[in-house]
Amino acid sequence: MAVERRIGRRNVTSPPLHLWHPALSGDIPIRITADGAWYHDGGAIQRESLVRLFASILRREDNGEYYLVTPAEKWRIEVELHPLLVTDITQGEEAGDPLLRATLNTGTILQVGEEHPLWLEPTRGHVPVLQLDHGLSAMFSRAAWYRLVDMARDLDGVPTVVSGRYRFALAPPQ
Predict the structure, then answer these.
(1) Mean pLDDT within 125-144
(2) What predicted TM-score, i.e. pTM, was given to this entire model?
(3) Full DSSP string of 108-150
(4) Percent of the chain having pLDDT more than 90?
Protein backbone atom coordinates (compact mmCIF):
# COMPACT_ATOMS: atom_id res chain seq x y z
CA MET A 1 0.00 0.00 0.00
CA ALA A 2 1.36 3.40 -0.96
CA VAL A 3 1.45 6.26 1.53
CA GLU A 4 0.00 9.67 0.64
CA ARG A 5 1.98 12.77 1.60
CA ARG A 6 2.07 16.42 0.62
CA ILE A 7 4.64 17.99 -1.67
CA GLY A 8 3.96 21.69 -1.68
CA ARG A 9 0.28 22.05 -2.45
CA ARG A 10 -0.08 18.59 -4.02
CA ASN A 11 -0.87 15.25 -2.43
CA VAL A 12 1.41 12.57 -3.82
CA THR A 13 1.66 8.86 -3.28
CA SER A 14 4.94 7.46 -1.96
CA PRO A 15 6.18 4.14 -3.32
CA PRO A 16 5.53 1.14 -1.03
CA LEU A 17 9.18 0.67 -0.01
CA HIS A 18 8.20 -1.58 2.89
CA LEU A 19 7.04 -4.19 0.35
CA TRP A 20 10.22 -4.17 -1.75
CA HIS A 21 13.01 -6.56 -0.69
CA PRO A 22 15.32 -7.21 -3.66
CA ALA A 23 18.83 -8.55 -3.17
CA LEU A 24 21.64 -6.01 -2.93
CA SER A 25 22.64 -4.86 -6.41
CA GLY A 26 25.81 -3.17 -5.14
CA ASP A 27 27.10 0.25 -4.21
CA ILE A 28 26.35 3.34 -6.26
CA PRO A 29 28.55 6.45 -5.93
CA ILE A 30 25.85 8.71 -4.48
CA ARG A 31 26.69 10.63 -1.32
CA ILE A 32 24.51 12.91 0.79
CA THR A 33 26.57 15.36 2.81
CA ALA A 34 25.74 16.62 6.30
CA ASP A 35 24.38 19.86 4.79
CA GLY A 36 21.84 17.88 2.70
CA ALA A 37 23.61 18.19 -0.67
CA TRP A 38 23.44 15.18 -3.00
CA TYR A 39 26.44 14.13 -5.11
CA HIS A 40 26.98 11.50 -7.80
CA ASP A 41 30.54 10.58 -8.79
CA GLY A 42 31.76 13.67 -6.93
CA GLY A 43 29.55 16.11 -8.84
CA ALA A 44 26.58 17.86 -7.26
CA ILE A 45 23.16 16.65 -8.39
CA GLN A 46 21.65 19.93 -9.57
CA ARG A 47 18.19 18.79 -10.67
CA GLU A 48 15.79 19.05 -7.73
CA SER A 49 13.40 16.66 -9.47
CA LEU A 50 16.13 14.00 -9.47
CA VAL A 51 16.85 14.52 -5.77
CA ARG A 52 13.10 14.24 -5.04
CA LEU A 53 12.91 11.02 -7.07
CA PHE A 54 15.90 9.47 -5.27
CA ALA A 55 14.57 10.61 -1.88
CA SER A 56 11.23 8.92 -2.62
CA ILE A 57 12.93 5.51 -2.97
CA LEU A 58 15.45 5.95 -0.14
CA ARG A 59 15.30 3.94 3.05
CA ARG A 60 17.55 3.16 5.99
CA GLU A 61 17.64 -0.45 7.09
CA ASP A 62 18.30 -2.04 10.47
CA ASN A 63 22.02 -2.32 9.68
CA GLY A 64 22.20 1.52 9.58
CA GLU A 65 22.93 1.60 5.84
CA TYR A 66 20.98 3.66 3.30
CA TYR A 67 19.63 2.19 0.06
CA LEU A 68 17.84 3.33 -3.06
CA VAL A 69 15.22 0.63 -3.55
CA THR A 70 12.95 -0.41 -6.41
CA PRO A 71 10.98 -3.65 -6.75
CA ALA A 72 13.95 -5.20 -8.62
CA GLU A 73 17.07 -3.37 -7.38
CA LYS A 74 18.70 -2.20 -4.15
CA TRP A 75 21.70 0.14 -4.28
CA ARG A 76 23.69 1.22 -1.22
CA ILE A 77 24.58 4.93 -0.97
CA GLU A 78 26.58 6.98 1.54
CA VAL A 79 24.90 9.38 3.97
CA GLU A 80 27.16 11.49 6.17
CA LEU A 81 24.60 12.37 8.86
CA HIS A 82 20.90 12.71 7.93
CA PRO A 83 19.69 12.32 4.36
CA LEU A 84 17.17 15.17 4.36
CA LEU A 85 16.73 18.68 5.76
CA VAL A 86 13.84 20.52 7.34
CA THR A 87 13.95 23.83 5.47
CA ASP A 88 10.88 25.46 7.01
CA ILE A 89 8.56 25.03 9.97
CA THR A 90 5.15 26.65 10.26
CA GLN A 91 2.64 26.80 13.06
CA GLY A 92 -1.05 26.52 12.39
CA GLU A 93 -4.05 25.41 14.35
CA GLU A 94 -6.36 22.43 14.26
CA ALA A 95 -9.38 22.10 16.56
CA GLY A 96 -7.95 24.94 18.67
CA ASP A 97 -4.59 23.17 19.19
CA PRO A 98 -1.27 24.38 17.78
CA LEU A 99 -0.04 22.30 14.87
CA LEU A 100 3.52 22.29 13.50
CA ARG A 101 4.21 21.46 9.87
CA ALA A 102 7.73 20.83 8.61
CA THR A 103 8.75 21.35 4.99
CA LEU A 104 11.63 19.20 3.78
CA ASN A 105 14.21 20.07 1.14
CA THR A 106 12.26 17.74 -1.19
CA GLY A 107 9.11 19.88 -0.84
CA THR A 108 7.34 17.29 1.30
CA ILE A 109 5.26 18.75 4.13
CA LEU A 110 4.76 16.65 7.27
CA GLN A 111 2.98 17.21 10.55
CA VAL A 112 5.25 17.09 13.60
CA GLY A 113 3.84 14.67 16.18
CA GLU A 114 3.77 11.07 17.31
CA GLU A 115 4.07 9.77 13.74
CA HIS A 116 6.93 12.18 12.95
CA PRO A 117 8.55 13.03 16.29
CA LEU A 118 11.54 15.24 16.99
CA TRP A 119 14.79 14.28 18.68
CA LEU A 120 18.00 16.17 19.35
CA GLU A 121 21.21 15.49 17.40
CA PRO A 122 24.04 15.47 19.97
CA THR A 123 26.82 15.71 17.36
CA ARG A 124 25.47 19.02 16.00
CA GLY A 125 24.81 21.03 19.17
CA HIS A 126 21.43 19.41 19.89
CA VAL A 127 19.73 20.71 16.75
CA PRO A 128 16.37 18.96 16.31
CA VAL A 129 15.90 16.14 13.85
CA LEU A 130 12.55 15.02 12.48
CA GLN A 131 11.95 11.26 12.28
CA LEU A 132 10.57 10.26 8.88
CA ASP A 133 9.17 7.11 7.32
CA HIS A 134 11.41 4.23 6.19
CA GLY A 135 14.00 4.86 8.90
CA LEU A 136 14.92 8.25 7.47
CA SER A 137 15.49 11.52 9.30
CA ALA A 138 15.75 15.22 8.49
CA MET A 139 17.90 17.66 10.45
CA PHE A 140 16.67 21.23 10.83
CA SER A 141 18.42 23.87 8.75
CA ARG A 142 19.66 26.87 10.72
CA ALA A 143 16.74 29.04 9.55
CA ALA A 144 14.12 26.38 10.39
CA TRP A 145 15.77 25.79 13.78
CA TYR A 146 15.56 29.51 14.63
CA ARG A 147 11.89 29.60 13.60
CA LEU A 148 11.19 26.55 15.78
CA VAL A 149 12.89 28.21 18.77
CA ASP A 150 10.71 31.31 18.20
CA MET A 151 7.62 29.06 18.42
CA ALA A 152 8.69 27.48 21.72
CA ARG A 153 7.10 28.36 25.01
CA ASP A 154 8.49 27.94 28.46
CA LEU A 155 7.12 24.86 30.24
CA ASP A 156 8.68 24.33 33.67
CA GLY A 157 11.75 26.32 32.67
CA VAL A 158 12.35 24.37 29.44
CA PRO A 159 11.69 25.73 25.93
CA THR A 160 9.06 23.39 24.50
CA VAL A 161 7.15 23.16 21.23
CA VAL A 162 3.65 21.76 20.99
CA SER A 163 1.94 20.16 18.00
CA GLY A 164 -1.49 18.72 18.80
CA ARG A 165 -1.03 16.50 21.85
CA TYR A 166 2.70 16.13 21.11
CA ARG A 167 5.19 18.09 23.24
CA PHE A 168 8.92 18.29 22.71
CA ALA A 169 11.60 19.99 24.81
CA LEU A 170 14.17 21.88 22.72
CA ALA A 171 16.90 21.36 25.30
CA PRO A 172 18.62 18.12 26.32
CA PRO A 173 17.73 16.73 29.76
CA GLN A 174 20.02 17.98 32.49
Answers:
(1) 96
(2) 0.89
(3) EEEE-SSSS-EEEEGGGTSEEEEE-GGG-EEEEPHHHHHHHHH
(4) 87
